[in-house]
Amino acid sequence: MNDEEFYASSGTLLGALQRGLGRGVTRAMHDPDAARPAVLSCLRRDHRWWWTVDERAVYLARLVRDLEIPVAQVLAVLDATPPEDDENAAGLTLEVLEVLGRAGNREATEAVRRHTPEGPHPIEAAPGERPPAPVPDPTLAEARRWTTVPDHPRYWPSAHVLAGDGEERDVPALLEVVNRVPTRTEGLDRCYRGLIEGLARIGGDEAAQVVPRLRSLWFTPHTYERAAVLHALLTFAPADEHPRYLIEGLEDCEADVRELAVAHVELTDRTRRCLAYLRDDPMETPEVRAAAARRLDRSG
Prior knowledge:
The protein is mostly helical. The protein has 2 domains: 3-114, no CATH class; 140-299, Leucine-rich Repeat Variant, CATH 1.25.10. The protein is built from 18 helices and no strands. The chain has helices at residues 3-6, 13-18, 22-30, 32-44, 57-66, 71-80, 89-102, 106-114, 140-146, 155-165, 171-179, 193-202, 211-217, 226-236, 245-249, 255-264, 269-280, 286-299. The longest helix has 14 residues, at 89-102. The chain is globular, with a radius of gyration of 20 Å. Mean pLDDT is 89; it is low at 125-132.
């Protein structure tokens, strides 16, 4: 199945919600009637690229609460899910119910209790697909040689060696590898977080050429990588410029993106309201709540 069949365009409300983008939350609040069925569709089919690492539970639970979607409709998704659950609908919906329960929703808490490990949809980590186990890491000298041969079996592990231990002369090779990371379904099993972190670590004008590529990678459904994208955008931005993705990052599905955005977003009336929301939301992670509290306290 290609991504045109599995994912709506990232420019639509549904596509933004499927990818856990902050803009999806903003659009949902502006059009609740369209957003409610879209959120439920994201429960009926788990659109995380890797169920075990990409986050959606807090993101979707907040939408359920803030859009005033009855918990009964969430439970209906769970009850309609077949035992085999190929789309991980029950797994994701149970995660969302757990978050709702943590925020004091008793109906959600009772639903989770009914689905014990002996029930029709046991609470356990969804397997998802995993990347192949890495071929041992090559030495730095070997990595420089193998990253010149894209079809070499050690091409990708070599690129990660350069990202971790390379220097300025390795930037062209790293840029070439990042440009080979697909932004669509085929090949998203290639984790690129470390590659982007390597370019940000090395820094410089040549490494900054990755910025247009980062703006494309922001929209992929493999959201585990998104914090590295935002960090690199911050690294390469001029000192007086705040990347526009920081505001969107406050409502992202990934907690480490929200935490990074909290620390760096420009303070305005709008962003202060967002920070207060994150600070006070019992659904939020302790780390993000604490970061939001610190930022507001420092700003007076």
